[in-house]
UniProtKB/TrEMBL annotation:
Source organism (scientific name): Oxyruncus cristatus (sharpbill)
Superkingdom as given in the UniProt entry: Eukaryota
Annotated pathway: tRNA modification; wybutosine-tRNA(Phe) biosynthesis
Lineage: Eukaryota, Metazoa, Chordata, Craniata, Vertebrata
Molecular function GO terms recorded: tRNA methyltransferase activity
Alphabetical list of SUPFAM superfamilies matching this protein: Galactose oxidase, central domain (SSF50965), S-adenosyl-L-methionine-dependent methyltransferases (SSF53335)
GO BP: any one term: tRNA methylation
Keywords: Methyltransferase, S-adenosyl-L-methionine, Transferase, tRNA processing
This enzyme's EC code(s): 2.1.1.290, 2.3.1.231
Protein's name according to its UniProt entry: tRNA wybutosine-synthesizing protein 4
């Protein structure tokens, strides 16, 4: 548990070095600097921003009081005191920090050794008295085990904590590690002993969904289990916890809500532009699994730092589910490493033959961008897996993620776009040639030839997280390339018609309301046009709109598709059309109460129904984002291949084997 404090200080220090956090003191307290990934930087930015937002609001609301105090529980190597003092916000406030004695001793030694820190604290007095390890005029460090409540109360009294003045308690990922009976007692003790008090809590939530299971397992493996989650698994349970233990007001937000509601839009844009970034799914999932809670009692005026500055739809309520869809692993496909990947594409190149290309995954025991192609073929009702031999050097493939593959007639598929790293320019187009007849009983027989193309269609193809869909206009076949992002533009809203044979950009008139720019959306061919659904829009907000690009005599027309009830905004899902119904599989949304399953939209009536995926027969968390899926209409079966991602600092989760979702019951009943 003590180790988590040091690790978080290093991560905050790395975020500060990249400009996410303005804090010149972290580097003095965190030890040797280590560079963290952009996803970690964002995670620690939002954590610091939430705590600072609430602390500064408390200091602002209580500035008319002659004296106030802040008590940081399990403060570790945090720099909060030094930042507040440097900003001139501690004119009449004393900061107390409590942690294990050895942690506090290390911190006290660092402060005394660093002139930049010791100058801010000033003269020290009364050290070494009981639990008081370090004592300045407005800054006290106490070495006490928080679970020993009577000892904690006695030490705080000796250090001068005054129960009669406004007090802010801070617990930043601390109570979760304690036994619930002890952390509950601490929450109640604070309410009972301090008539004018506020409590700020930041910690984890939702252990039951796939990301939550990976998170929970990570902390258990570190021997720092999250003990609070069994009893307090969601924000509502945490709110009831405080209101039932003496606190009269309590507000709570997960970090997606906090970032949207409490961080000004110009600051959101500043943070989003700091580093090349392409891990939106994991960022939003991390934010849905952490919350900030503020509770208060006896405060005049009332302390409400979590009031939104903008009105947004609240996403904490339950999602109405029309039923469930059973998930089952595919027999004989377990343990095939080449199918453990994300950001890849899977397409039917022949009936019952699926080609999977690209993505990031597992190869020879290593995590890397994948060069190998894989093929699945169905024989006698069972899927078999095999590798594909590629005729031509790998450099033509370029290890791409988030590309598209469109199967055209005559043993040809066109690869469009994709990327290597988020900072590199997008990759262009590539033909894949394969035999027109494949031996489905032996998938290893398939050879694929890679053919480079002249960069004639570069503006259309230097992008990723886009869609490429077959359309027909005046009897000619085109590929409609839409949306996505590039190294320069975080979201694109343009489109191109590529002539299927010549791959030249063709100008075709398009009228009607232009959809919002988006990436990570879905696109399906339907009645000669294209159905676009969801996606991540500008400012990294999920979209719930559905558009039909409809063929007219002289061109195409955008037409909004109304859904009832409205489609819950989502992105990173997959989609298929079957008999006038649009099927959406998985994705990421901001509704924290559950994860997206299968959504069925009747394109005639607009009726939109959500179905939960029943995963009771899976022994591992099924992450339905960054996956690929193939719909098999005869069996009314959806085959999900790969999926997952880098789960913040908790490790990479890759769905270990393909999963079959049986949709026959919902497509019959819908």
């Amino acid at each position: 548990v003590q180790g988590t404090g040091g690790s978080s200080a290093v991560s905050k220090c790395s975020a500060a070095a990249r400009g996410y956090i303005q804090d010149r003191f972290l580097r003095l307290l965190a030890g040797r600097p280590r560079r963290r990934a952009p996803l970690i930087h964002r995670g620690y930015y939002i954590r610091t921003r939430a705590v600072d937002h609430c602390v500064q609001d408390f200091l602002l609301k209580t500035q008319s009081h002659p004296r106030t105090q802040v008590l940081s529980l399990g403060a570790g190597f945090d720099s909060l005191y030094f930042r507040l003092k440097d900003m001139g916000l501690l004119h009449h406030t004393v900061v107390y920090e409590v942690d294990f004695p050895n942690v506090v001793c290390q911190k006290a030694t660092l402060i005394k050794r660093m002139e930049e820190l010791s100058t801010l604290v000033g003269d020290t007095v009364g050290e070494g008295l009981g639990a008081i390890i370090f004592s300045g005029e407005d800054y006290k460090l106490l070495g006490v085990d928080l679970s020993e409540l009577s000892e904690l109360g006695r030490a705080l009294e000796e250090a001068g904590l005054d129960s009669e003045i406004p007090t802010l308690f801070i617990a930043e990922v601390v109570l979760a590690y304690m036994e619930n009976s002890r952390s509950d007692a601490l929450i109640q003790w604070a309410a009972e002993h301090f008539p004018r008090a506020c409590f700020l809590l930041y910690e984890q939530v939702h252990p039951e969904d796939p990301f939550g299971r990976v998170m929970h397992q990570h902390f258990s493996q570190l021997n720092s289990a999250l003990r609070s989650l069994a009893q307090y698994p969601d924000c509502e349970a945490q709110q009831r916890r405080f209101l039932g233990r003496g606190w009269t007001e309590c507000s709570v937000m997960d970090m997606n809500e906090f970032f949207t509601c409490c961080v000004p839009e110009d600051e959101q844009r500043r943070v989003q532009a700091l580093e090349p970034f392409d891990e939106y799914e994991e960022w939003h999932l991390k934010c849905s699994h952490y919350f900030v809670l503020t509770a208060s009692k006896g405060m005049e005026p009332s302390w409400t730092p979590l009031l939104p500055s903008v009105t947004v739809p609240h996403c904490a309520g339950p999602v109405g589910m029309a039923g469930s869809v059973p998930a089952a692993v595919c027999a004989r496909l377990s343990g095939i490493p080449g199918l453990r990947r994300y950001g890849h594409r899977s397409v039917l190149i022949k009936p019952d033959v699926i080609l999977t290309t690209g993505g990031f995954g597992e190869e020879d025991g290593q995590h890397c961008r994948l060069r190998n192609f894989h093929v699945l073929s169905k024989h006698a009702g069972c899927w078999k897996a095999g590798c594909v031999t590629k005729k031509h050097p790998d450099k033509r493939w370029g290890e791409r993620l988030y590309h598209t593959v469109s199967c055209l007639s005559g043993g040809l598929a066109l690869v469009v776009g994709g990327r290597t790293s988020p900072s590199s320019a997008g990759l262009g187009v590539l033909w894949l040639k394969f035999p027109e007849t494949c031996n489905a009983s032996d998938p290893d027989d398939i050879a694929v030839e890679l053919v480079n193309l002249q960069p004639a269609a570069e503006p259309a193809t230097l992008r990723w997280r886009h869609s490429t869909t077959e359309v027909t206009f005046k009897g000619e076949q085109y590929l409609f390339v839409y949306g996505g992002r590039s190294a320069l533009e975080p979201v694109l809203g343009d489109w191109y018609f590529l002539h299927a044979r010549e791959l030249s950009n063709t100008v075709i008139a398009v009228e009607g309301p232009v959809p919002e720019s988006r990436h990570s959306h879905s696109a399906c061919s339907w009645e000669g046009g294209v159905l676009i659904a969801g996606g991540l829009g500008a400012a990294e907000k999920p979209l719930g709109s559905v558009f039909l690009l409809r063929e007219l005599e002289h061109g195409f027309q955008w037409q909004a598709v109304e859904t009832y009830p409205p489609l819950i905004p989502r992105y990173s899902h997959t989609a298929h059309v079957h008999e006038g119904k649009l099927l959406l599989a998985g994705g990421v949304w901001f509704h924290a109460s559950c994860v997206p399953g299968i959504t069925v939209i009747d394109l005639m009536t607009g009726l939109c129904l959500d179905y939960v995926i029943n995963v009771e027969h899976l022994e591992w968390p099924l992450m339905l984002h960054n996956h690929s899926s193939v719909f098999l209409p005869n069996e009314k079966e959806l085959l999900v291949i790969g999926g997952g991602g880098n789960c913040f600092s908790f490790g990479t989760h890759l769905n270990p084997e393909p999963v079959s979702l049986s949709l026959s019951s919902i497509l019959t009943n819908h």
